[in-house]
Amino acid sequence: MPDADPPGWELPLLLFAGFRTLIDQLHASLAARGHPDVRPVHGFAMQAIGVHGASISEIGRRLGVSKQAAGKTVDRLAALGYVERVDDPRDARSKLVRLTPRGLDSLRLAAEIFEALRADWVAQLGAERVRSLESSLRTVVPAAGYPVDVPGWFG
Amino acid sequence: MPDADPPGWELPLLLFAGFRTLIDQLHASLAARGHPDVRPVHGFAMQAIGVHGASISEIGRRLGVSKQAAGKTVDRLAALGYVERVDDPRDARSKLVRLTPRGLDSLRLAAEIFEALRADWVAQLGAERVRSLESSLRTVVPAAGYPVDVPGWFG
DNA sequence: TTAGGATCGACAACGTGGTTGTCCAAACCG
DNA sequence: CGGTTTGGACAACCACGTTGTCGATCCTAA
């Protein structure tokens, strides 16, 4: 047995480092293209809102956080000009949260940048190893989408 | 070209899901073995303290956060009984933060559990694919260890 | 030896993201 | 119609991060 396996604690560190590398590069590109104030959590929230908009409660459910937490995040997104609240014509209790043109632009840019980032990995590792990495991870992680309560989850 | 590549935004999601899966399983095992109150951030902090102890400022540097933030985390760790502050005999300004026996136990257990978790992945994917995943990630992430200011970084 | 500067750790104030609990208005349903 | 559920706001609180300040201690160089 020539090479010893790396210690088990290295695996989570590498996964996190990969995640963080991508997200940091995403936000560096976003900042360079007119979106310096978006934080990672905002991107996930806007993803949860989607191009058709959603109510506060629905956003909370999609993110796996309370509606109060979702409401605060929407407040900050609104202050940054990425979303707006409009009355829901079909439910007087509900306010529909919709992306502004600026919000839509950031979402479109983010998708582009993620493609470019994956292409970088393919250039470094080859298409086969990137596909293998993705397929390995799909095997070991539960199928369900993951909640995005990262700050609260971690600390 | 038979199969289309997955969209670029899936890669960070998979990496995060892998990380979160491992950390969640770690803390589930830790909770079952007498450490229900440790949070992920505490584990990283204890790792930074190490078996020989460290000063508050040194912990902050190792974690990539301010000494004030390190001090608060140490406060909570001390309240949980995982660390203690003792006077540094060689510097009257400094307090040495040391792991208690309980803290050392959690660190030892965590190392064991991470080994078992990696073995689970090997059982599901095969040793070669796990090694390939680790090696791919080492290629694309910067060599430097990553800061652990996760909540602040994300939000 | 002493003056100046750097470092240690504490305290305070604040921003952001999360949580519960409470409340009212509107919607739903038997 | 009346009871229950739901949507969203408000308040209080906790965890984790930040900057700024400060006194005490250490180090170094005049």
Explain the overall architecture.
The structure is a homodimer of 155-residue chains. By secondary structure, chain A is mainly alpha-helical. Chain A has one domain: Arc Repressor Mutant, subunit A (Orthogonal Bundle). Chain A is 63% helix and 8% strand. Chain A has helices at 10-32, 40-49, 56-63, 67-79, 101-125, 127-140, 150-154; strands at residues 54-55, 83-87, 95-99. In chain A, strands 1-3-2 form a three-stranded antiparallel sheet. In chain A, α3 (56-63) packs across α4 (67-79). The longest helix of chain A has 25 residues, at 101-125. The termini of chain A are far apart. The relative contact order of chain A is 0.13. Chains A and B meet through α1, α5, α6 and α7 of A and α1, α5, α6 and α7 of B. The structure holds a DNA duplex (30 and 30 nucleotides).
List keywords for this structure.
homodimer; 155 residues; mainly alpha; Arc Repressor Mutant, subunit A; 3-stranded antiparallel β-sheet; 7 helices; 3 strands; DNA-binding; HTH_MarR-typ (chains A, B); WH_DNA-bd_sf (chains A, B)
Short description:
Two copies of one chain form a homodimer. With 155 residues, chain A is mostly helical. Chain A has seven helices and three strands; from the N terminus they run H-H-E-H-H-E-E-H-H-H.
Write the layout of secondary structure elements.
Two copies of one chain form a homodimer.
Chain A (H helix, E strand, L loop, with lengths): L9 H23 L7 H10 L4 E2 H8 L3 H13 L3 E5 L7 E5 L1 H25 L1 H14 L9 H5 L1
Antiparallel strand pairs in A: 1-3, 2-3
Helix pairs in contact in A: 1-5, 2-3, 3-4, 5-6
The structure holds a DNA duplex (30 and 30 nucleotides).
